[in-house]
Amino acid sequence: MPEGDTVWQATKRLHAALAGRVLTHTDFRVPQYATVDLTGRAVLDVTPRGKHLLIRIEGGLTLHSHLRMDGTWKVFAPGRRWSGGPAHQIRVVLGTDDRTAVGYRLPVLELIRTAEEERAVGHLGPDLLGPDWDADRALANLLADPARPLGEALLDQRNLAGIGNVFKSELCFLLGVTPWLPVGDLPADRAAVLPALAARLLEANRDRPVRNTTGRRNPALFVYGRAPRPCLRCGIPIRVADQGDGSRDRPTYWCPACQTGPAPTPAHRHPRL
Predict the structure, then answer these.
(1) Reported pTM
(2) What is the pLDDT of residues 170-195, one digit of tens each?
(3) Which residues form the Formamidopyrimidine-DNA glycosylase catalytic domain (predicted)?
(4) Catalytic (active site) residue 187
(5) Distance of CA 51 to CAs 11, 66, 88, 263, Å?
(6) Which of 49, 51, 91, 206 is catalytic?
(7) Exposure string over 121-133, b if 16+ CB within 10 A, otherwise e
(8) If 89 and its partner were Cys, which of 85, 178, 221, 266 is the partner (CB 3.0–4.6 Å)?
(9) Each residue of 209-264: pLDDT tens digit?
(10) Are 85 and 104 in contact (CB under 8 A)?
């Protein structure tokens, strides 16, 4: 599931493959840009912004994409078979003399003026892996709506950018509270460490192929994806439920013994249990 660390890794691969090189082939497989040809333009840089990815191209253009739940960018050497999914899932192809970048299942793909990037990403809060990271501002954003459940506040990219379902669940476990606890009820000592803890988790995982929050090889995560297996701390079975308005699949994991605070009723539990 793409989160800030995943986008960081994708950006690093794309920057290494494309930055400073001239595009020799482009193919947009979305109706809006079907006739666009960027051949002959150089790629200037590739930059992450939270869970958004910005490919800046000569001539004042930026290709903006968002991976959401299952989008991905793959980079291939000449002659290598493309392996990111079936051909009908390809949304864009950017080729140079020695590398080809292929975007699969990208729900957001738009070509904008570089000078207008703020229109696409200006709403985002401080980026956990970016140069604009500001822990105090992120905490103030989270606390601005004290009645909001912590898990929902962490997923709101306007508060802080880069957290998805996995890090939301892991952060709440490490803080010892359920994702349904109102932000305003978070004890002051835990609220004070939340931004630094979030940044530390993403920084520790930005160069790892497999996320790890436990410091162990197996299991690598404390709660996410582990229901109904026993909690690593207390042995009680981990639980899972959907969180949010139901418009997206947001499976949320927690330990009912190690984490204090509200929890969903059995009727709202995830069908996996």
Answers:
(1) 0.90
(2) 999 999 999 999 999 999 999 999 99
(3) 2-103
(4) no
(5) 10, 6, 24, 28
(6) 51
(7) beebbbbbbbeeb
(8) 85
(9) 899 999 999 999 999 999 999 999 999 999 999 997 655 668 999 999 999 999 98
(10) yes
Q: How far apart are CA 137 and CA 96, in angstroms?
A: 40
Q: Is 200 considered catalytic here?
A: no
Q: Which of these is catalytic: 74, 168, 206, 250? A: 250
Position 267 scores a pLDDT of 43
Tokens 């709403």 correspond to 123
Q: Is the pLDDT of residue 270 over 60?
A: no
Place of tokens 């509200």: 262
